[in-house]
Design a protein that fits this description.
The chain is of the alpha+beta class. Helix content is 38%, strand content 8%.
Length: 206
């Protein structure tokens, strides 16, 4: 999640809010093909089950376990960090999980501006190049594909309704990257909202 916005500079992909947390690492699956894409192509012709809700398999390593434990529906740490930066920059007046497609984490309904804070693990961050868990591969292929598809559908639906959509990834809110992220995001939001950024504000809480 139209003109080139900061969300596109920071990476496409909007998510249906829900699953979050991080992971790391990627194994090569051929020139220009990541493991997720390769597995998707491998399983494309197979009739995988498509129930409305699948039970998650048990975690097989510590990274996956941490990601699954961090799967909160709201008020995750990245969301709280983002909201603190918005308030410090004078961009308050937002609503949380507004009832429009995708339920944006932060929304300004009057201006039709939406902001999604995506967890890298669950929503397949384009910056992290995450590998699939090595066990229960078919489950994860289907699960991640559905998440990505919902994200794309939510973004398209919002834009069709005239919303401006921004996406920030969990990894872009880490200590080493957050200032650069805010330097691009906050001015774009201020312009769309018709607001002035707080004097001398870089979005850092006081």
């Amino acid at each position: 999640m139209r003109r080139m916005s900061v969300s596109k500079q920071m990476g496409n992909g909007v998510r249906n809010r829900g699953e979050r947390a991080g992971s790391a690492g990627c194994e090569a699956a051929g020139p220009g093909v990541g493991p997720f894409q390769a597995r998707m192509e491998l399983l494309a012709g197979r009739a995988l089950p498509a129930p409305a809700r699948m039970a998650a398999p048990p975690a097989t390593n510590e990274n996956v376990r941490k990601s699954m434990r961090g799967n909160k529906r709201a008020d995750t740490r990245p969301e709280l960090v983002m909201r603190a930066r918005l308030r410090a920059a004078g961009l308050s007046g937002y609503r949380l999980q507004w009832k429009v497609p995708g339920h944006p984490d932060v929304a300004w309904p009057g201006k039709k501006v939406a902001l999604f804070v995506n967890g890298c693990f669950w929503h397949r961050c384009p910056h992290c190049n995450l590998s699939l868990p090595k066990s229960n591969v078919e489950y994860w292929v289907v699960k991640f594909a559905r998440n990505v598809e919902r994200d794309e559908q939510s973004r398209a639906a919002l834009e069709a309704l005239g919303w401006k959509v921004h996406v920030v990834w969990e990894c872009q809110l880490k200590k080493k990257t957050i200032d650069a992220t805010m330097a691009k995001l906050l001015p774009a939001l201020a312009e769309e909202l018709g607001k002035e950024l707080a004097a001398g504000s870089d979005g850092r809480p006081g």
